[in-house]
Amino acid sequence: VLAELIEKFVSHLSESRMDCYFSTGSYKAMDADVKKENLSSVQKLGVEMTVRYGKYLNLLKEDAENGLCFVLKNCEEFLKQQQRTVVSSLCCLQEHYAGYDWFASSIFLIMSGDREKTLTFLQQFSRLLVSAFLWLPRLHLSMYLPVATMEYGIHPVYFCSAHHVEMLLKAELPLVCSAFHMSGFTPSQICLQWITQCFWNYMDWSEICHYIAICIFLGPDYQIYMCISVFRHLQQDILKHTEA
């Protein structure tokens, strides 16, 4: 039901010029083109974990690994069309996105391992503003970012979402905010970790689905409210750890 709902919602929005923040060229997924592409060791490990988790949730079949590799390789090729070339020694500014694509993997599980549905959804989703915040590889070396911003190698999620989480935390949860300052660690570091991993390893699968759906339906600012609500939920534990 969720897969059908987000599919129809995103398809509807992506057909409206007013809702399309990014323009995307035409791209056709071809088996032959992506077969010559190789996944990095980090991506291979991510695929292994995703497939294992998907089978544990009874969402994936035996041949799911090939389908997920197909999706990841096509996403890379598709997003490459909207990237700039940068000469930099920074790991995060190399041609390939340095981490694993947790968002695409989450959509693959929501779509029960249907690679065509997943790819169609991601291509339509990439036109919407919310894709910049939920799907981190979306803005990797992106031509939509100012050159200076891109050369710093800092993702907009860090200086937009995570920054606003810190601002809200001061007002909403001053004790949690103080606890972080005392620890010498910033809430934005934690939030970036949560958001990059789509809350994998932090929330149950149904909650991960709710997080993705809420941000798609209600807008990217709900990413910030979600982080604040998690900090509120963890407040007693955080304060207990600070005392200890």
Description:
With 244 residues, the protein is mostly helical. The protein has helices at residues 2-14, 31-35, 41-56, 64-80, 102-110, 115-125, 131-134, 147-152, 156-172, 174-183, 187-196, 205-218, 221-233, 235-243. It folds into two domains: 1-129, no CATH class; 156-243, no CATH class. It is built from 14 helices and no strands. Helix 9 (156-172) crosses helix 11 (187-196). The mean pLDDT is 89.
Provide the β-strand percentage band. under 5%
Q: How is the main sheet built? A: none
Helix content: 55-70%
Structural class by SSE content = mainly alpha
Helix and strand element order:
HHHHHHHHHHHHHH
The helix tally amounts to 14
Give a count of the beta strands, DSSP E runs of length 2 or more.
Answer: 0
Return the domain count: 2
Query: What gross morphology would you assign?
Result: globular
Distance between the termini: 45 Å
Rg measurement, Å: 18 Å
Low-confidence stretches: none
Would you tell me the overall average pLDDT?
89
Keywords:
single chain, 244 residues, mainly alpha, 2 domains, globular
Helix/strand layout:
Elements: H1 2-14, H2 31-35, H3 41-56, H4 64-80, H5 102-110, H6 115-125, H7 131-134, H8 147-152, H9 156-172, H10 174-183, H11 187-196, H12 205-218, H13 221-233, H14 235-243
Domain BROMI C-terminal Rab TBC-like: 1-243
Protein name: BROMI protein
InterPro entries: BROMI_C, Rab-GAP_TBC_sf
Briefly characterize the structure:
With 244 residues, the protein is an all-alpha fold. The protein has 14 helices and no strands. The protein has 2 domains: 129 residues, no CATH class; 88 residues, no CATH class.
